[in-house]
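Crash report, auto-generated. Payload:
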Amino acid sequence: MKNAVLSELFDEMADVMEILGEDRFRINSYRKVARIIGDMPTDVETLLATGQLAKIPGIGKSSLAKIEEFVKTGTITAHRELLKKIPPRLLELLTIPGMGPKGVKAVYEKLNVTSIAKLKSVIKSGSLATLPGFGDKKAAAITRGIEFLEKSTGRIRLDQALEAAEMVTYLLRELSGTQRIQTAGSLRRRAETIGDVDILVAAGKSKRASERIIEGFTNAEFVEEVLASGSTKGSAIIQTESSPVQVDVRVVPRESFGAAAQYFTGSKEHNVRLREIAIKANLKLNEYGLFKAERKVAGPVEEEIYQKLGLDYIEPLLREDRGEVEAAKTNSLPELIRFGDIKGDFHVHTNASDGNCDISEIARAAKEIGYKYICITDHSRSSAIANGLSAERLAQQIKQIRKLNETLKGITIFAGTEVDIHADGSLDFDDKLLAELDFVIAAIHSGLASSREKVTTRTLKAMDNPYVNCIAHPTGRLIGQREAMDLDIAAVIKHAAQTHTAFEVNANPWRLDLKDTHCRMAIEAGVKLAIGTDAHSVAGLGLMGFGVATAGRGWATKADVLNTLSAAKIKSWVKSKRTK
Ligand code: DGT
Ligand code: CA
Ligand code: CA
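Recovered output after restart:
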């Protein structure tokens, strides 16, 4: 439970040191510790107690002492001391997309900017644009970043919402009187960001039973602030490991549980459409049921609401009023991709670049999930901060993978790469080396703020390469942190179809890139999706579900997703581009 907080503390120390211009080597080692701890599936306390923590490469003596202090006291003295050296609101500048520690250092030292408000004023006065390394363009980008930040505050990522939902669900399950629990709202629909988490509980009819459940929730240890508390509804801010989250809990009688699930899953737009259909059929639909005059014709079971309205059952992922109601009327809803259809992961890092375990560890973990293959895609040399592989190191890795495959049973390791796309659209490795690989994903990692024309041409050109099978995180967005590239989506989708190139659906909840609506455009153009977790650890493999949900929200069926194919079929898919 403590790993996330601790990881953040180390990152924050690195940020402050970087702003203060301290030793590069120490900054990097703090970042590394932050990453290792953040990715660890096991609680740091446990690893410390068993002495395993000291053995992890990258965690030196002084870091270990800080971790021990944190486990004992909940704080780190060095962290507090560092914070004292900077103005209290300075770090909030780091939350602006496009502002890193270097930028913060510059505006702090040169313009005495100590908060977002002050940054706004130096942008307005024009003095930021005159600062070396900034200029009009960068100032405009930072303005957009601030606007983006102000717009996006209050909404959280899917993983944060899910964590909150799991905490509350676990608690509710233990309370007496709860018969069924169902997550609803945008979380059940797996929308890309979540305003608040909605949870429904079915309970007996007595008012007291319902009150007790609400009290059990609002009195929970993790509740920070109770926003509302009644006999059937409680609303509270709860503290999860990563952020505060608003959770609404509603208790409903069992006989209207299905109707409530339907109503509170939304979306509002979808519900409006259903209500119209009900009215036309002389029925009334609300959170208690579907009624003909006073008689309830559906209520306990959600599926029956759809059935009685003359519709096929619409999965929560599709309930956005994007044509699903029409499709449900005409029996033409897609049969959505499911996690069980996934046969492998196309985007995985190892400790050869910036991951934290080796190839055989991650392959074994993938096999345990039930995958048939996994594609190792470490960074290429241009991604120096990520310890990208040189051509020689990649050649070595390919050999290593071939050898591992000889002994490994039940899973195939594909040799791959996440090769950088240069500014001119050329790639970081030459074709001869790429030809040795089983699968190539190519990605842009720099210059994301360039013009629409530049980022689009760059992507198009990469797809022309016969060895590029997939474009990773095509738009480069980081949810709540960095805007997507200004990519001409229609153009790149068209070109992907022509060049036999897939698009990644990056399953990391920070990315979800391609996003749902773009997935749908790609599918309609006949482009295949490749869902990849971008895992940097064994735990990272577990993010696949977010990618599957995003593809599903884009109406993807099994046939639209590359990693539902067998290993042999993947090979022939790759070959068909190379021999075209
Ligand atoms: P969020 O929380 O902003 O991410 O989005 P939702 O969809 O979870 O919205 P929320 O929490 O305000 O309400 C949950 C669901 O309840 C919503 O998706 C549909 C339903 N709902 C809430 N208010 C209304 C309403 O005024 N009319 C209709 N038809 N449905 C509503
Ligand atoms: Ca909600
Ligand atoms: Ca709500």
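Post-recovery validation: The chain has four domains: 2-151, 156-255, 258-329, 339-578.
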